[in-house]
Amino acid sequence: MASLVLRSLTSSCSAAFGTRRLLPPLLGAAACRFFARSMAADSAAASAPFRKVQIQRDDTTFDAYVAGKDNAPGIVVLQEWWGVDFEVKNHALHIAQMNPGYRTLIPDLYRGKLGLDAAEAQHLMAGLDWQGAIKDIRASVNWLKSTGSSKVGVTGYCMGGALSIASGVLVPEADAVVAFYGVPPPELADPSLAKAPIQAHFGELDNIVGFSDISAAKALEEKLKSSGVPYEVYIYPRSGHAFMNASPDGIKRRKEMGMTDEDPAAVELAWSRFSSWMGRYLLSP
């Protein structure tokens, strides 16, 4: 399954992201050194508000990081290909603090490993058991429901965005999905078979062909039309891939990658739409 996703994530930047066509050739050694410094330091700094729990599924156990109010509606937050780094923790904390409050959970899909440079991240993603990741997500949803969250949504970014949409198809316990710039390959999940309401966000300038560019967004919209579930697909002008990574360190990383400058208005609008969608499906009786 890893090879299927890697075929979706293709671009000319093998030096940057370790795949053939993932992003333009914009990363070099300096960027990778930045990642190693920033991700190691900031991931540790962002750990304090989280409580680590262990979740059992099948014959394996994995760590997960929980924040927010007990008994609040739950949201599983899925990582980019780097692992459980500072940015996914920033997103989870932001969501937990939204009004009226959510309980967020980040499952460690990489089992404690973190990509400190692009080659490492590519290796980790290539080695991911994608069907196993879906099982982790389902176990995370059920853990939240069994410990006080009456309804649970799933959200994710890039790789996690693709897994979020797949969860809307393959995790029947998920009550809502919001995905950011990522579409699963058809071999993993067919969005036309979605069971949960899905909202998806893409950047107009995203050039990851077939995964998160405009063509992928429009193809997803057509699939969701035939699914029968409520859906929304948004494309943000002047925004590129990973445009939600707007923390100070996330902005540094994006600049090191040579990516499109962040658009604060797009980030604010996307969060507003996220809040409205999750509130509609997780807060109602």
Automatic annotation (TrEMBL):
It comes from the Eukaryota. InterPro entries: AB_hydrolase_fold, Dienelactn_hydro, Dienelactone_hydrolase-like. Residues 62-282 form the Dienelactone hydrolase domain. GO terms for molecular function: hydrolase activity. PANTHER family: ALPHA_BETA-HYDROLASES SUPERFAMILY PROTEIN, CARBOXYMETHYLENEBUTENOLIDASE-RELATED. This is Dienelactone hydrolase domain-containing protein. It comes from Ensete ventricosum (Abyssinian banana).
